[in-house]
Design a protein that fits this description.
The model is unreliable at about 1-15 and about 20-35 (pLDDT under 50). The protein has a single domain (about 5-310), classed as 2-enoyl-CoA Hydratase, Chain A, domain 1 (Alpha-Beta Complex), CATH 3.90.226. By secondary structure, the chain is of the alpha/beta class. It has twelve helices and ten strands. Helix 2 links the parallel strand 2 and strand 3 (about 95-100). Helix content is about 45%, strand content about 15%.
Length: about 325
């Protein structure tokens, strides 16, 4: 990422924030797999290996508001790099990659609205674009299952809104507890979901239905999402992790075929990162046109998320 393209000198560039501390990251002394890897010692991702299922469990453990803040994006970048390295050619066998959340009642609220507000008020278009493109890079790699012979599973226990919903659309299989909620609320403050929703929902639901979902700002239940075909398996509250285990055990013998179907689907209707990044450019331009009332609403949402985080983690 070219730091010379960053707009406002008073605003630390996204590229700098994204890479900050990576070079200084201490290596853990005792890891479940390869001692030299930071995979099992990430700040906002709790990663563990399940040898029986040949599965890598990952749970988001957000620091503060349950959103995709810059350090979490950095952790996801390292997470993907290390999975590719450790479980690629001649590495450990990996069949399933699972992503859930440890934040009670929330899978993820999506983009860091506090950061967006700061960039918008500073007129820092380039940092908005950098943020969106960084998300798209992670999203695209997940859509390709990191080019590994694996099946990716999104486990939803709680709310998946905005960018959280978008991120889920990049998984092969979505398993949700009945109380889970899904939605794209960005239109409420004059914006739209700019990191995957248009492209992925249009392919899965058709253009008209995708546009209707984005423009409505409606919140959907897990059962409604199941009826739309976006959630693949429903389980009772509190049974999400067991639901994942059951799915893997039921499909383990058909793993190669399942993976091949998902891989073929990407060939039938591919999503190019150039398409996603072009949408981010539109998203950034739209963000800079938001009115003061829109920004105030965005900042009220930030305060509500912060209050929720403090209630869950008072320390």
């Amino acid at each position: 990422m070219d730091q010379s393209r960053i707009g406002s000198p008073e605003s630390q560039s996204f590229a700098s924030e994204l890479t900050d501390a990576l070079l200084d990251r201490p290596l853990p002394s005792d890891l479940p797999q390869v001692p030299a890897s930071p995979l099992f010692d990430l700040g906002q991702l709790d990663v563990s290996w399940d040898d029986d299922l040949k599965a890598l469990w990952t749970f988001m453990t957000p620091n503060g508001r349950p959103s995709f803040n810059l350090p979490m994006l950095r952790d996801f970048d390292v997470w993907q790099d290390e999975i590719s390295r450790l479980y690629g050619d001649d590495g450990e066998e990996l069949r399933y990659l699972i992503l859930g959340s440890r934040f009670p009642g929330v899978w993820n609220f999506g983009g860091d609205l506090g950061l967006f507000s700061k960039y918008i008020r500073n007129g820092d278009r380039q940092s908005l674009v950098d943020y969106g493109q960084a998300c798209n890079t992670i999203l695209t790699r997940n859509m390709r299952a990191l080019d590994l012979p694996i099946v990716t599973i999104g486990l939803v226990q709680g709310q998946a809104l905005g960018g959280g919903f978008e991120a889920l659309m990049s998984f092969n299989v979505i398993i949700a507890e009945r109380s889970a909620k899904f939605g794209l609320p960005e239109i409420a403050f004059g914006l739209f979901p700019g990191m995957g929703a248009h492209a992925l929902l249009s392919r899965r639901l058709g253009f008209a239905k995708a546009e209707q979902m984005i423009l409505s700002g409606k919140t959907y239940t897990a059962e409604e999402m199941y009826d739309l075909g976006l959630v693949h398996f429903l389980v009772e509250d509190g049974e999400g992790e067991q639901g994942v285990r059951d799915y893997i055990k039921q499909n383990s013998r058909r793993h190669a075929g399942n993976h091949a179907v998902f891989k073929a689907s990407r060939e039938v209707w591919p999503v190019a990162i150039e398409e996603l990044n072009a949408i981010v450019e539109i998203w950034a331009d739209t963000a800079l046109k938001l009115k003061e009332s829109d920004l105030r609403l965005m900042e009220r949402l930030v305060r509500a998320q912060t209050k929720l985080s403090a209630k869950i983690s008072p320390n």
